[in-house]
Amino acid sequence: MNQRWRPSVTVAAIIERDGRFLLVEEETSGGLRLNNPAGHLDPGESPAEGCAREALEETAWHFRPTHLVGVYLSRFIKKSDGEDVTYLRFAFCGELGAHAPERPLDEGIVRTVWMTADELRASADRHRSPLLLRCLEDYLAGVRLPLSSIYCDPSVYEVG
């Protein structure tokens, strides 16, 4: 029986402060990697809500998405078991809020780091996803779409 193809929907925050970008360094099967604060969209939340939640969980910084930077698709084959994985990423920029240093970071997150665009470009071999750099370049090019570009039907918030 054929299974229906379903990409993993993820959300990512592009957070800039004083010319530096907030990233996470995380444990992966390939070792320590850099990534945007990002994660999977949960049931019952919009992509912007999921992005704010993931940013807080992974960095202990409050974040309010104000614009959609883009929607991205990537695919890879897991070396461990040959699984074919596709990610559909919604990337947002927005306003950095208060830091909550007492909050523990998500499992697997080693630390947060602030890096310049040039430092990010120079560390591409350490990126968890090829989308990290693409999202950054689109952000730096000024790509900003209104949050209303993503429509969430009320059924998203209904308990089944």
UniProtKB/TrEMBL annotation:
Cofactor(s) annotated in UniProt: Mg(2+)
Annotated Nudix hydrolase domain residues: 4-137
GO MF annotations in UniProt: nucleoside diphosphate phosphatase activity; ribonucleoside triphosphate phosphatase activity; thiamine diphosphate phosphatase activity
Keyword check for Magnesium: yes
EC number: 3.6.1.-
Domain of life: Bacteria
Subunit composition and interactions: Monomer.
Family under the similarity heading: Belongs to the Nudix hydrolase family. NudJ subfamily.
Name of the protein in its database record: Phosphatase NudJ
